[in-house]
Specification:
Blueprint lengths: L3 H18 L2 E7 L6 E6 L18 E6 L2 E14 L5 E5 L20 E7 L6 E6 L8 E5 L14 E3 L12 E3 L9 E4 L2 H5 L2 H4 L14 H9 L15 E3 L5 E6 L30 H23 L5
Parallel strand pairs: 1-13
Antiparallel strand pairs: 1-3, 2-4, 4-5, 4-6, 6-7, 7-12, 8-9, 8-13, 10-11
Length: 312
């Protein structure tokens, strides 16, 4: 047993370190028929991700890593270009950094936002949502990398806004495409708060509490289009999702299909077409690496448990 004790101690410590150090992975996929430039912003105090912005051509995926305990948001920028001076900008959801990397800058509204608070190995739940509080620019879906079927209590569900809201956006909220596109084409749909800057729509001032700030006709428009997404600031009850064990991360898909979004209703019922009704998740090399790492951790834990945890 003399040689076994150090080995067991090493395995125990290695297991702990792997669990503690393992980052979370966002597998970001573009199922649109146009390029999307994802942007990523960490909340104050949260460590930065492996990248804060990049180009994602149609049909491509990229795995982005963040700390296991992390909070922040992900969004998609569209119609981006670099001018003659070398300054990069986007027609929708621009972060204003002048480059593809957002480097600590957030999205200018209107922007569809995926928001996350990851608990990591602390034993708590992850919280996540897709928000239209700042308006809409691109369809989006979020789904946990769940290693097993979703629990019966309804956690670890997919959420998002798979409908192309731009097609049905009210005229007073519509953001028109820049030239030379057709003048009638909408590239984004503003929130009523941004469009009118009134407290009733912004849930501010006298309306700055859940009791005082009720849904408006405009927030109901967004809710009818995407029932699982936030439509205004206090839309928590039907729009915040949790997952106790997301298997290391989440899928974030631009222009998703509707098959994974069981809780979100049917966007066609509101006269809004799904952005891509045939899209299915397929995973990628990034998620495979996470799965392999998790398998190693599980094996090490099993070895330690079967022998004796007292040696740790």
């Amino acid at each position: 047993m003399g040689g076994l004790v150090p080995l067991l101690s090493l395995l125990c410590c290695l297991t702990f370190l792997l669990q503690e150090a393992a980052p979370a992975t966002f597998t970001i996929t573009n199922s649109c028929d146009y390029t999307v430039w994802p942007g990523i912003l960490s909340n104050a105090g949260a460590p930065p991700p492996s990248t804060t912005g990049f180009a994602l051509p149609p049909g491509q995926s990229l795995a982005v890593t963040v700390a296991s305990v992390w909070s922040g948001r992900i969004w998609g920028r569209t119609l981006c270009s670099t001018d003659s001076s070398g300054t990069f900008s986007c027609a929708t959801a621009d972060c204003g950094s002048g480059a593809a990397e957002c480097s600590g800058r957030g999205a200018a509204p209107p922007a569809t936002l995926a928001e996350f608070t990851l608990a990591g190995g602390t034993g708590g739940d992850d919280f996540y949502d897709v928000s239209l509080v700042d308006g809409f620019n691109v369809p989006m879906l979020v789904a946990p990398h769940a290693p097993a079927p979703a629990p019966a209590n309804g956690s670890c569900q997919a959420t998002g806004c798979p409908a192309d809201v731009n097609r049905a956006c009210p005229a007073e909220l519509r953001v028109a495409a820049p030239p030379p596109a057709a003048a009638a084409a909408a590239v984004a749909c503003r929130s009523a708060c941004e469009a009118f800057a009134e407290a009733e729509y912004c849930c501010s001032g006298a309306y700055g509490s859940p009791a005082a700030c009720a849904p408006t006709p405009y927030s109901r428009f967004f809710k009818a289009a995407c029932p699982a997404a936030y439509s205004y600031a206090y839309d928590d009850a039907t729009s915040t999702f949790t997952c106790a064990a997301a298997g290391g991360g989440y899928d974030v898909v631009f222009c998703p299909g509707t098959s994974r979004l069981k809780s979100g209703g049917n966007p066609e019922a509101a006269g809004l077409p799904p952005s891509n009704p045939t899209m299915e998740f397929s995973g990628d090399a990034g998620s495979s690496l996470v799965t392999s790492r998790n398998t190693v951790v599980a094996l090490l834990m099993a070895i330690v448990s079967l022998t004796s945890m007292r040696w740790c």
